[in-house]
TrEMBL record:
CBS domain sequence ranges: 11-69, 79-135
Protein name per the record: CBS domain-containing protein
Keyword Ribonucleoprotein included in the entry's annotation: no
Keywords, alphabetical: CBS domain
InterPro entries membership: CBS_bac, CBS_dom, CBS_dom_sf, Diverse_CBS-Domain
A Pfam family matched in the record: CBS
Gene3D superfamilies linked to this entry: CBS-domain
Length: 135
């Protein structure tokens, strides 16, 4: 049964994270180097304060260029602060529903309010594929 498969079974645990003070271009370079489309932004206590996506980076570059300002700044100036998360024990079907409902590419995975991983749409597809193969 697919509902027995949990987010924590397929999430990534080795995460690239940023702080609000991270230089925007440093963050862009990290996204490119690690071939990821976004990463959580953590506050001083390790709490999630935002997400930085490729779209956020492009929006920052376009906005600053349009206003003829110097392109750059800090992650905190350009990150998305509306963060959708998923609990570590959420079943994979609930995770898929969250992706469809909120049109997200990735979701931070929390346990007792702390970030322990991140799950992507690709991770969900991998879980479904493996479940189908295993029968």
């Amino acid at each position: 049964m697919m509902r027995s498969v949990k987010a924590s079974d397929y999430m990534a645990t080795q995460l690239i994270t940023f702080t609000p003070d991270t230089d925007l271009f440093e963050a862009i370079n990290q996204l490119l180097e690690h071939r990821i489309t976004g990463a959580p932004v953590l506050g001083r206590e390790g709490e999630i304060v935002g997400l930085l996506s490729e779209a956020d980076c492009l929006k920052a570059i376009l906005t600053l260029t349009y206003h003829e300002e110097e392109v750059g700044g800090r992650v905190g100036d350009h990150m998305s602060t509306e963060v959708f998360t998923i609990n570590h024990d959420a079943d994979i079907i609930s995770v898929a529903e969250e992706f469809i409902t909120n049109k997200r590419r990735r979701l931070p995975v929390l346990k007792n309010g702390k970030l322990i991983g991140q799950i992507s749409r690709r991770d969900v597809l991998r879980a479904v594929g493996q479940f189908a193969q295993d029968g």
